[in-house]
Amino acid sequence: MKKTPSPNLNSDVFNTLKDRIIHWHYPPDYRLTEEVLCEEFGVSRSPVREALQMLVENGLVEKEAHRGYSVKQPDMREIYELYEVRLALEVYVVTLLTKKGIPEVLWQEILDRIQDNATDYAEKDAEFHESLAILTNNKSLIQHLKSINERLQFLRIMDDMYWAERYSSLGKLIRYADDFVIICRTRQDAETALQRVKQIMIILKLTLHPTKTHVVDMGQDGFDFLGFHFHKKKTKKSGKLLPYIWPSQKAMIAVRSKIHFITERMRLSNTLPEVIKFLNRVIRGWRNYFRIGNCTLKFQQLDRFVRYRLEQWVRAKIGSRGHWNELAFRTSMTKHGLEYFYLHGICAVKS
To answer: What is the pLDDT of residue 5?
Structure first.
């Protein structure tokens, strides 16, 4: 009677191989032979074959006739498809949790865990959305999202290692999804780095964004990345030139547009508590994202804008015959729990 391999044994071999591929111990085109793996793990062919087949199903390994198994080469179309599917899953998770709600304690635990030792922001982003997916209690959803993130992590590490091995002397590559920035010490290094990136893009049959791709001086123009504006400024105390970050102009315009949309005249049929509830969702999400860095002045500007737009909305609702009561207005804001972008102690120094 043929002995069936233990499920745990299959899983151990699979997880070990997957970890090696994701962290680039096995680069693309690396051949995985059954004989070598059987000898290394001290197992028969059955669990090794099962693990290899699972890697194929996860998109990390491919099997070719007369060649066997090898680590899969990245395919740009597949990469874009993975990002599209992940976006759809993440939006669905957020939609579910918006209806269901998240206990304040669990929400704070997730934020604290993500913010601790945040160095790899792409990895932290994946961890954040996987944590939200867990709250849905949908096992299939969690598994699919984690599988996609593992595949994208492999591709991200591969790209980062390629730059680190060949061009790290020119500057440090910082990347999130298909957006990246290279920090260089001199303009000459930056110009050279740009040429190297263009060469890599040609090999990958891709093109750089014509308006977003350029060389800038952080001390003069600065640059926008992931919604933030990065700029070097002299500190008031020591006069040293240090990097500062705050919400970009594009991000400020976008959030003002949302606030304006919520407080438009066409929504006078809504009640004040409803309007404040919608505003708080925008305020809370925006504040949690941009709370790092030098955001105090930007947050205070947005608080004044919310106050102005809400006052205009209330005045329009009561009409020209209504009597304006400033004290009653302020009391209503407090009563219905209007939140603020700026909270004392949540931001860094003023920019």
So the answer is: 46
The Cα 173–Cα 184 span in angstroms is 9
Contact between 265 and 312 under an 8 Å Cβ cutoff? The reply is no
Q: Which residues lie across from 71 on neighbouring strands?
A: 61
- Record the tokens describing residue 298, joined without a space: 């930007």
Q: How far apart are CA 214 and CA 75, in angstroms?
A: 26
CB 191 within 8 A of CB 170: no
Distances (CA, A) of 56 to 6, 32, 52, 118, 288: 20, 12, 6, 32, 39
Give the C-alpha separation, 208 to 47, whole Å.
44
Q: What is the pLDDT of residues 207-225, one digit of tens each?
A: 788 888 889 999 898 999 9
What's the one-letter identity of residue 171? G
Give the Cα separation of 183 and 174 in Å (integer). Answer: 8
| Angle of the 272-290 helix axis to the 296-318 helix axis, nearest 10 | 170
